[in-house]
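Protein of interest.
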Amino acid sequence: MLDDEECFFVIAHELGHIKADHVLYTIMARNISTIMSLIGQATLGLGALLSQGLVAALHDWYRKAELTSDRVGLLCVQELDPCLHVFMKLAGGASRLYAEMDRTEFLQQIRAYEDTDEFLLSKAYKGLLTLYRTHPFPILRAKELDAWHRDGYRHLMGPKGFLNA
């Protein structure tokens, strides 16, 4: 499904998880989640109800860890297009549709997704859709990486960035 540069991005993304100790924190989070579940059972569900804030926070951390690792992938590949192609393929699903995928249209969908945030109800609905997800939607990952590419990445890689010092 992926060409060489896209595979490089995915491998760098996964290595980013290792380098940032996400594996350790994920294990700790899962252990805490298991303990909270046991407490919930011992307290006839009251403890589980109280622990939902912690569970939501853990899932938010998982999603942020994915965005961090996406940045690592971009730093390794050093081109935005392969990264966006991976997200387009994740969002599209069927390999027979890859040839028809349009980067410009994909970026327009990102903007349309953002435009729904002007309504509080839409913002709340989007929050509920992602509350217990460990990975952000591919279109959101593309949006975040595109924004970081314009700002943070260029600062790091630019003529005076610390990677070129």
About this structure: The mean pLDDT is 82. Residues 52-77 form the longest helix (26 residues).
